[in-house]
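Let us practice reading a record.
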Amino acid sequence: MAGAKSVCVLLLCMVLSAAMFNVEALTCGTVATDLSQCLGYLKNGGSVSAACCKGVEALNNAAKTTQDRRDACTCLKTTAAQLGGVNANYAAALPGLCRVNIPYKISTSTNCASIK
């Protein structure tokens, strides 16, 4: 009985302390905000701005977990489809131009569920 109470107290402490760490999932809004400065390049090509590369780096740094990377991938695909006019070759080249190593290809054909 005392063991069960200890486990309950421990679980309660874990739940309460988790709220203090302010853990947030990566949202599509975050992805869109981070890459908003890249839209001109993604549609028209040309040079990539420093602000765009900062957004690519911020997005990569924010996507720490497998789920975050999958969510970012899904959001990229959805947003590109909604905006229209995004050049797939420009999108795929963006991480390399910004010297950011993203662990999956930015493409409409990427299977986001397979990202680790």
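A brief commentary: Residues 3-23 have pLDDT under 50 and may be disordered.
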